[in-house]
Every structure is written in C-alpha cells, then in structure tokens.
Amino acid sequence: MARRTRQEETGGARIAHRDACALFQGARQPKYRDLGLDVLQPGRGRRLHQTTLEETPFWTLRRFTRDGGAGLPPMLVVPPISGLFPALLHDLMVGLLADFRLHVLDWANVRHVPPSCGRFGFDDNLRAITAAIRRLGPRASVLGICQGGVPSLAAVADIAARSPDAAPAHLVLMGAPIDPAVNPTALGARLSGHSVYWYQIVPIGRVPGGWPGASRWVYPARTQLAALQLYLLAQLPVDGEIARKIRQDDGLDPLRFPFLDLVTSVMDIDARHFAENIDRVFLRRDLARGRLFFDGRRIDPSAIRDTTLLTVEGASDDIAAPGQTSAAHGLCPGLSAGQRQALVVEDCGHFSLFHGEICRRAVLPAIRAHCRGPAPDATRGSPASAG
Q1: Backbone angles phi, psi at 306, to 5 degrees
Q2: What residues contact residue 116 under an 8 Å CB cut-off, 6+ apart?
Q3: Distance in angstroms (rounded) separating the CA atoms of residues 13 and 22
Q4: Structure pTM?
Q5: Which domain does 243 fall in, by range?
Q6: Rounded Cα–Cα distance for residues 318 and 315 (Å)
C-alpha cells in the first residue's frame, strides 16, 4: 500500500479536527430517527414493508420485511441504549434484510417522554427484550449489540429457565461487555473510577422546557456529544478507527447516512437506566459474577440449552475488547461445543463490527451462516465447556 505523505496526514487530521469541533454545533432531537432500511440492493428492486408490532412510550418494536421475504426466519436486533440512535447500525440491518424478517427494538429519545410515563431502568430494558423475544417465538434469532448484549443474554437465560420451549433458536452477541474485567479497556477504567452515586448525580440533568419530557432526569445528549468529541480527539494522533471512518466513509450509503452524522446523532437517556447500567454491568459485573437479579429471580445463563451462541469481537476494539464478549461462553456450560462459536475479526475496531466494509465482508456472512444453520438439537450430547 502506498505510503501517505505528511501533507495527506496533516490534511486528514485537520478535517477530522474540524469535524470533531463541529459536534458542538448541536444535534437534532427527534423521538425516533429513520433507520433508512429502504435501500434497494443492486438488481433486486424489492420493496420494503414496515410494520409496528408494539409501541410504548419508551420503545417501539418494528418489523421490516422485503418483497418475497414473508417466509424468512425472524431476527430481533437489540441496539444498545448508549445515547446514540439505533440508526447507527444501518449497514448491519440492511445486510440482514436479505436473509431475515428483521425486527428492531427502536429505543425512544426520552426527551419526548412525559415524566408521567414513569422511569425507564435496567429492568425495564430487560423486560422489553423479553417481551420482544416471546412475540417472535422460538424460531427467532436474537442479536444483542454493544451494551444491548448483557440484557439480551440475561433475557434469553430467564426465558430458558422459565419457559424452555419459548427460548430463541440462536443468540448472537457482538462487541458486548459481558465481562468488562476481561482484557480491560481505557473506557472501563474510566467508568470504574467513580462510584455509582457519582453517576446518579454529576452527569445528570433535566430535560429543558418546551419538550414533552420537560423536567425528566436524564443523561443529556449534550454530555454524550462532549464524550464523543474527547474520544475522537484522542483517536486523531493514532489515526484511530473512528477518525479514519470520518475521513473516508466506507458505509453502505454515505450520502444519505454519512458515518459522522450517524455517530453524532445523540439522544437523552433516562437517568435511571444510565446509572443502573453502569452499576450492574461495569461496576458490579452482576451477570458475569452470577449476581444479576430480575423481578426477584437470579439470572442463570447455565439454563440456556436449546439456543446456539455466536460471539463476534473486533480484534482492535478499544470499547469492548476481545474476550469481553466471548466471556459469555463460560457462563453457558449447558451448551455443547457444536452449539457455540466465537469469532474474532482481524483489523476490526468497535464501529466496523456494524458499519462499513469489514461488517459486509466478515461480520454479516458469519451471522448469516450461524443463524441460517440448523436449529439446536434437543437430543444432543452432554454439554461441553467453552474453548
């Protein structure tokens, strides 16, 4: 590959620095953002049909089916509640439409949710995922992404323990901090530097007047933008993944959905979920330590026996480093060796797992092969430990 000149390097840095500074110009604040899945694949010309299956103040379960796709198996995509709109997963979701009836838990910007609707915490997140899995039925595949991975694994475990016949056929966990103590990252170290009480007070604010959610306590979108700016500026000197993607967008539809716009499209998060997620996932590591309780029940992933498990990690992921997601295999001893698979994608950072050329070339084919394969065999041999 040709060596980049000093002028090219500094020019790229100036562009990325300009973009980083532009983050503070403000962001749109819709309740939901268009997922942009109506991208016609070359030579197919198939229309996309969207249906709202369930709608609550805090989330909407959407189904997307292409022409001729009514007989395809269902897949549930569980985006993270991280302050970014689920549209960030645009490339991944478009790629899945060829092989699945796609269902998406579309999280609402709580700036639009009146305080009279109550709060939305970690258990509410888990409850929403459980309801969606039950609605799709046992043929379904579940794809938990980033911070959506822990509640996805917990929901599947809870269903497997209480209603084994309703457990999904396949579970895919991608770039998820199942155990953030494995191969710790700088992000994990920063999060662990404060107590849960700090997260309940310091980064929290109220939704301003003029919005339906006025006076709701939230982790504000503006704070998320500030964190993104710091992350991007830290990546500039090392030419990190996010800086490269902004400089040379390799997304599926960079004109309609440029990466910079997707990664800076932020929303308010309910303060309860923000603090509880950090506490349970990063500070106490409840699921990894066998101490996660939901509605009074202890979540035990060893109950999962009839659901295959695929973990997908980026070898260069500095947000959920390799080992953090595949830690799920050690929590699921009820699965045989034939029911589990662990993939580490070389030269892949966190965002490339669901955006761009690496996602299309390496991640989507792996998910497709795993979830379109045979369903788990209830008559399989004895469980094997994760390797």
Answers
A1: -115, 25
A2: none
A3: 14
A4: 0.89
A5: 31-371
A6: 9
